[in-house]
Recover the amino acids of this structure.
């Protein structure tokens, strides 16, 4: 291959050391999801176009597929790349309903594609990590608490994350409040309230009156509700103080209070949960709990982890499958952190040891040492050439490999090239300290101090 | 979502228990590749179309991308989905050459797409697992031995595989032999010899004479070479006995003999290596070592693991990057094994324990037990409803969860529901036997005996 090489805007790729960081986040998520009993599945990358276009407002983002040799675009199977993992999961549930046990807990960590204009944190190809619990006919509310707990647990295990807050609200609470106020078009009001993080409050107030037909008093109450936030159940009294009453509001308040209380034991300085009554998730079809997540210091990224409860995640006409889930924007998170903080790994290769080669004739002896080290789980590589030892050490240094293994008249010796310390060692039993076994995530500051 | 649900031919999807099998294979590959110092990278799913079409003969298989809202197909960026991991890797090497250390070892486990007609083992979307070592300007031959050893090690660690043989040959050997015979168009002869596994030998003989312009004597020698195979270096004498001489042939014989000898210690009854002088890898641009792999009893699948040496994996005009690598058709392997053997996992969920719920009011106590179990790495889930204990046990049985945790007047008790044995246990310290901690791969026979 020889050609002009052009990075593609919106299709981020990582260098090997950066990929170590991403892989560690993926591993942590997977491990946490499995500890909570979530089964990992993958779905195909493509869905029939008619399925992808059911959510009207995302149609502009879909990538269509066509085989190069196909006669005409009309002749194709009408396939597009999935733009999220919810549409394919709903289809998977319907397709396999008879072979799944409900409630069905699944996690799914896969790439998705959207033809959006690329910008910071917005890509055309990116990885999402989704968890959902789906029931058949019914799904108890305690599963809303469960998915929240799982994602909080996962986020708290990702060491490299800045502090963050998971913001929760409840559509029943909002809709019940609006209904109690006598507002007819609750969806339109919700859509306008969702603009509060982009527009000044006075402009939203005007839109509520002009576009949603709310009275000044109704608009006032709607905006008052949206200002309420609390890290505990105290929001309930503040909503009650607004004097609005509706059975659906009661239900929403009870659920949201239970959610915040049910997660209290998982909260710490770094990972918080907050009832935020301005969160509405715009046009998405949620029917109860809704989630968004903000990283402190990364407000411009928007929500990195969102979701909620669907009373009908999927339906085949006879059976309805309610679900509750959260989707973490993994690439948005990792690529942005890498770019802004310079975070990386302390080595670009898995090798903890470079086995030196004395001369090409004895390469197989070095191979045998490497085989012995690997047999008890020590990642290593054999030097590419039998250069002078100084050169072989520099080869290890450039890759960040901490140890070099020598074999000579003095027998087997292993050298920590960071300290210069060299000790006798047996390839069948020697292992580095646990901390050196795998590449470690380091900040730019760590790296600078090292150099 | 409600709609007609149609599986798409060529886009295989797995049930959760089947996905456990695939995930274990992926984990084993990744672990082995990292033990050998290979860095994991991912590349974007798309490449510019002109890059994808450089290999003329695969153009028919490419999927083109177009955004739904794009004005006209002509206006698009000319992107297609990658059909292998070699083209994107070569591009990645050129794009990042200044930031990589050479020789650069990488593994890459990703989906690829080809618009082929689906059949057993041939999919439109499938996962490949590739390893390559790429050098700058030069790459020593011992790296050919290294990638072979890594893949043999990986294959021997995948317990569920039937026995197999890695077939190796060398383009220099073939081309040197043909040149020594006085054949002008060695590429055409190689292409025809590659048909030996599909066509009768007499037909290939005729094609050699009619299409490649070989004499009867030359065709005879070409076919004689292609019959030679051996599990050790004895092929060298058999080639010499044909009386052909050429420097390139000598080089090829030396390399191939070194390859077979260099892997001898990794060979056993299940994983063999064989010099097979009929292997040519058709039109691919290999320049030395070539690989194919056959699973015993699955001959119709063709090669499940192929590759070889490129003198120019990539080039930017100034610098050339030689490489050697092998690509394992992971989906071809796993989906076929699952379909043919009924292999699956003994449970469809990661949970080793179901924590029973006494009543909804005490659900948080069950949650606390689950949290304690997870804190020392025991995957578990809490029962979805406070049904009668018999019903909760059947809930666990249907999912294959081996243990149920009860809390009552007798304190904490854990029951192995396969044996009925129930013992007192502390949620902060109790763990199942190691063998029960993760789902296990089982054959259909195991499953039938269990039921």
């Amino acid at each position: 291959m020889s050609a002009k090489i052009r990075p593609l805007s919106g299709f981020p790729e990582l260098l090997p050391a950066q990929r170590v960081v991403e892989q560690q986040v993926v591993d942590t998520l997977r491990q946490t999801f499995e500890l909570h009993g979530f089964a990992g599945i993958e779905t195909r990358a493509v869905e029939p176009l008619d399925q992808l276009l059911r959510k009207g407002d995302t149609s502009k983002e879909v990538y269509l597929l066509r085989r190069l040799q196909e006669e005409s675009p009309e002749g194709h199977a009408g396939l597009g790349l999935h733009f999220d993992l919810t549409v394919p999961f709903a289809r998977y549930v319907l397709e396999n309903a008879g072979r799944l046990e409900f409630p069905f807990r699944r996690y799914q960590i896969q790439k998705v594609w959207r033809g959006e204009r690329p910008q910071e944190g917005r890509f055309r190809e990116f990885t999402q990590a989704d968890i959902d619990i789906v029931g058949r006919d019914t799904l108890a509310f305690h599963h809303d608490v469960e998915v929240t707990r799982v994602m909080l647990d996962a986020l708290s295990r990702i060491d490299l994350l800045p502090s963050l807050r998971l913001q929760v609200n409840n559509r029943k609470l909002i809709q019940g409040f609006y209904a109690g106020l006598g507002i007819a078009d609750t969806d339109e009001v919700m859509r306008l309230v969702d603009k509060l993080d982009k527009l000044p409050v006075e402009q939203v107030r005007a839109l509520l009156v002009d576009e949603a037909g709310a009275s000044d008093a109704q608009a006032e109450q709607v905006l008052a509700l949206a200002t309420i936030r609390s890290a505990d159940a105290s929001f309930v009294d503040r909503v009650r103080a607004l004097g609005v009453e509706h059975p659906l509001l009661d239900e929403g308040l009870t659920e949201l209070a239970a959610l915040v209380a049910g997660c209290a034991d998982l909260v710490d300085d770094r990972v918080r949960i907050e009832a935020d009554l301005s969160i509405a998730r715009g046009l998405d079809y949620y029917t109860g709990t809704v989630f968004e997540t903000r990283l402190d210091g990364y407000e411009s990224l928007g929500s990195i982890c969102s979701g909620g409860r669907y009373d009908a995640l999927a339906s085949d006409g006879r059976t309805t499958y309610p679900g509750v889930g959260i989707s973490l924007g993994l690439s948005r998170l990792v690529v942005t952190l890498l770019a802004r903080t310079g975070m990386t790994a302390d080595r670009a290769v898995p090798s903890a040891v470079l086995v030196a080669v004395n001369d090409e004739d004895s390469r197989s002896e070095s191979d045998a040492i490497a085989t012995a080290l690997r047999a008890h789980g020590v990642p290593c590589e054999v030097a590419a050439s039998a250069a002078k030892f100084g050169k072989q050490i520099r080869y290890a240094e450039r890759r960040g490999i901490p140890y070099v293994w020598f074999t000579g008249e003095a027998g087997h010796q292993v050298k920590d090239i960071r300290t210069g310390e060299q000790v006798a060692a047996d390839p069948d039993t020697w292992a580095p300290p646990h901390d050196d076994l795998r590449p470690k995530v380091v900040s730019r500051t760590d790296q600078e101090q090292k150099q």
Remarks:
- Chain A touches chain B through 102 residues (CB under 8 Å).
- The longest strand of chain A covers residues 305-315.
- Residues 353-450 of chain A form a domain with the Rossmann fold fold (CATH 3.40.50.800).
- Chain A has a mean pLDDT of 92.
